[in-house]
Amino acid sequence: MEAGHRKPLATHDRTSQKTGKICQRLLLKFLEVLRFVVQALLHVVGLRSTPPEPLRSVLTEKDRPVLEEFRKKHDEEFTAMADPEKLEPWFSYRFDRLVQARTERIRR
Length: 108
Hints:
The chain is mostly helical. About 75% of the residues lie in helices and about 0% in strands. The protein contains 3 helices and no strands. The longest helix is centred in the first third of the chain and has 36 residues, at about 10-45.
């Protein structure tokens, strides 16, 4: 093979690292599904008293900013939903805001 047709070593290392990370994520997803299946089988045959825990997605550091933004954006509504006393006022407030926004759109 001619020297000009081979990939540079640094490119090969980056490709190898990227492939390794992809394989690791796939392995973690597979292991999570396997955990669920084993727990379900144990429950079905009577060796586990509780049903299997739900599948959990495997999160990485790359997902953290998106999740933090989601939490900040929806924290108020999650808090309201968890407390029945806060839920009615929160719904009223949200409804009033929607009506105001709709009225503004109609005026334009």
